[in-house]
Design a protein that fits this description.
Elements: E1 14-18, H1 47-59, E2 64-68, H2 78-88, E3 93-98, H3 103-112, E4 117-121, H4 127-134, H5 139-152, E5 157-163, H6 172-181, E6 185-190, H7 207-212, E7 220-222, E8 235-239, E9 245-249, E10 262-265, E11 270-272, E12 281-282, H8 284-289, H9 292-304, H10 320-323
Parallel strand pairs: 1-2, 1-10, 2-3, 3-4, 4-5, 5-6, 6-9
Antiparallel strand pairs: 7-8, 8-9, 10-11, 11-12
Bound molecules: S-adenosylmethionine and iron/sulfur cluster (SF4).
Iron/sulfur cluster (SF4) binds at residues 23, 25-27, 30-31, 69-71, 99, 121, 320-321.
């Protein structure tokens, strides 16, 4: 098995693959209210292509694959696909990022999926604000999804909250309580300027400001997660009196490029070395040709083009829903 290392010595062992650009929500920070057309089905990677890609990636040393979207659960056949994947790339950990709304429909499949982690996005516990932030989502579906995940599975659960100033930044305490009662780790994510049509600088709030406002139930102590490969870009804190953990992802105010271990693949099969860069390498023709050596060569090209940090990347308008967050 190989090891994917880039020009700056970073070990790239984690890939995020978007299985669809489509979503049943249109979150304020992710998509414009109107005018984003879904990509035609024939341009989206088939599950067979993703299986093939996963095998090449495993041979190159990838240890963890996250499936994301758009909303991955809106794509038909996701769970049978995940079942086949387990046999195809044994030893590779598979994890999922979802808005949680369709978990109640698929809970039996999720429980049998062999997933090693599920991240559910949840920005507020206020019904009206939830509808506003997701542009018409139903909070109860997500709450039920999280409840079922906690009760019917033992899959480690994280709740991702994107902070927007004056919108949901007053809810951290309520979300912390909710996460604790569901055995989940809450992660606060800074609103990232990925798409000019949704970015609002006035709604940005640094995660450090939120940390200072954390309820004083005990003392939040910084955890050393430098050796925890699953920690990703999050900094974790632990409440010494309750043991509860909280993560913060400060992509904007405190960038973590030095320890970035990931590559992304869009639903159309474009490998993106950096979230903040427009640049990508189209793997699809090689996937369609079924030639593993060609796919591997393109992956290595993407690895070699990974910028040192996003300051060195060619930034441009990017829809998070198309590349999977
Ligand atoms: N639909 C799924 C979900 O919402 O979890 C998966 C895809 S979504 C694009 C992946 C993650 O990106 C979510 O946690 C979402 O909150 C986050 N995200 C989307 N746009 C963002 C932005 N502008 N800034 C920070 N996080 C963002
Ligand atoms: Fe959909 Fe997730 Fe984007 Fe919200 S963050 S619009 S749920 S893809």
């Amino acid at each position: 098995m190989g090891v994917l290392k880039d020009r700056f010595g970073r070990h790239l062992n984690y890939i995020r693959i978007s299985v669809t650009d489509r979503c049943n929500y249109r979150c304020l920070y992710c998509m414009p209210a109107e005018g984003l057309e879904w990509i035609p089905h024939e341009r989206i990677m088939t599950y067979e292509e993703i299986l093939f890609l996963a095998r090449v990636l495993k041979d190159l040393g990838v240890e963890k694959i996250r499936f994301t979207g758009g909303e991955p659960l809106v794509r038909k056949g996701l769970f049978p696909f995940l079942g086949s994947l387990r046999g195809f790339v044994p030893g590779v950990r598979t994890v999922l990022t979802t808005n949680g709304s369709l978990i109640p429909q698929y809970i039996d499949e999720v429980a049998r999926s062999g997933l090693s982690g599920v991240n559910v996005s949840l920005d507020t516990l206020d019904e009206g604000l939830f509808r506003f932030m997701t542009r018409n989502g139903n909070l109860q579906d997500v709450i039920e999804g999280i409840r079922l995940l906690a009760e019917r599975t033992d899959i480690p659960l994280k709740i991702n909250t994107v902070l927007m100033k004056g919108t949901n930044d007053g809810e951290v305490e309520t979300l912390l309580d909710f996460a604790r009662t569901h055995g989940a780790v809450l992660r606060l994510i800074e609103f990232m300027p990925l798409d000019d049509s949704v970015w609002r600088k006035d709604l940005f709030i640094p995660a450090s400001e939120i940390l200072q406002r954390l309820p004083e139930r005990g003392f939040w102590e910084r955890m050393d997660n430098s050796s925890d490969h699953s920690a990703g870009p999050a900094r974790y804190f632990r409440n010494v009196s309750t043991g509860q953990r909280i993560g913060v992802i400060e992509a904007v105010s405190h960038h973590f490029c030095q320890s970035c271990n990931r590559l992304r693949v869009s639903a159309t099969g474009v490998m993106r070395p950096c979230l903040f860069s427009e640049e990508g390498i189209d793997l699809r023709p090689a996937l369609l040709s079924g030639n593993a050596a060609s796919v591997e060569a393109l992956v290595l090209q993407a690895v070699n083009s990974k910028p040192q940090s996003y300051c060195h990347a060619n930034t441009g308008a990017t829809h998070m829903s198309r590349i999977g967050g």
